[in-house]
Amino acid sequence: MVKEYVYCPRIAYFKMFSVYEPPTESMQYSKNLTLKYNEIVEIVNQNLGSGYSVFVEVFVKSKKIGVVGKVDAVAINSLEAVPIEVKLNTSPEKLKKIALHHLAQCIAYCIAVEETFKKQVNRFLLVSLEPRAVYEIKVGVALREFIYRISKEIDKMIAEEKMPTQTPSKRKCAACFYRKICIR
Ligand code: SF4
């Protein structure tokens, strides 16, 4: 729900209180990363070095921020865990300009990986397989604090059952499934 809340708090509210949204194309689309395992291992070896165990499509959970989800891949050695977010059909330029709501989800998953594997997460990899591109993003204090704040805001929204304000971006509203019940 972190991603939705950061994109528009009202979408998180509608989803949380069970206003049904049919699955979009991207929701239905499976990355099927077990078939890409060797490519991911190659990327890990080239960008992180050898000595990492690699797992794909990993379920993670954080009690601290109330997040449950599936991470595309995680590379683990004795010192750290490095989550990996894989994009299949994107350009390196688009990959680099990661949207804030997408970044927020990645950081929330980093916190969940840390809790699930009990390993420090200092960075994650944003990866495009075709064409090949890899960006490393540091998981610093400011990004963590941002997610803790969002998590508290979501908890408050749920506890109070109070509809949050609309996103100021009308561009988002134009393509939104909820616009008929949201904008009156
Ligand atoms: S219509 Fe706009 S404000 Fe309402 S939920 Fe959708 S994006 Fe958010």
Short description:
With 184 residues, the chain is α+β, with helices and mostly antiparallel strands.
What does this molecule look like?
One of its GO terms (molecular function) is exonuclease activity. Its cofactor is iron-sulfur cluster; Mn(2+); [4Fe-4S] cluster; Mg(2+). This is CRISPR-associated exonuclease Cas4. Belongs to the CRISPR-associated exonuclease Cas4 family. There is one protein chain. The chain is an alpha+beta fold and about 180 residues long. The chain has a single domain, classed as 3-Layer(aba) Sandwich (Trna Endonuclease, Chain: A, domain 1). The protein contains 9 helices and 5 strands. The protein has helices at about 1-5, 10-15, 25-30, 35-45, 90-95, 100-115, 140-160, 170-175, 180, and strands at about 55-60, 65-75, 80-85, 125-130, 135-140. Strands 1-2-3-4-5 form a 5-stranded mixed sheet. Strand 2 and strand 3 form a beta hairpin. Helix 6 packs across helix 7. The chain is globular, with a radius of gyration of 17 Å. The two termini are about 25 Å apart. The mean pLDDT is about 90. The structure holds iron/sulfur cluster. Iron/sulfur cluster binds next to helix 2, helix 8 and helix 9.
How would you describe the shape?
globular
Structural class computed from helices and strand pairing: alpha+beta
Neighbour order of strands in the largest sheet: 1-2-3-4-5
Secondary structure: number of strands: 5
> What is the subunit arrangement here?
single chain
- Ligand kinds: iron/sulfur cluster
Return the CATH class.
Answer: Alpha Beta
Give the tally of structural domains: 1
Q: How many helical stretches?
A: 9
Note the run of SSEs as H and E: HHHHEEEHHEEHHH
Radius of gyration: 17 Å
User: Strand count, sense and closure of the main sheet?
Assistant: 5 strands, mixed
Mean pLDDT: 90
Strand proportion: 15-25%
What's the end-to-end separation, in Å?
24 Å
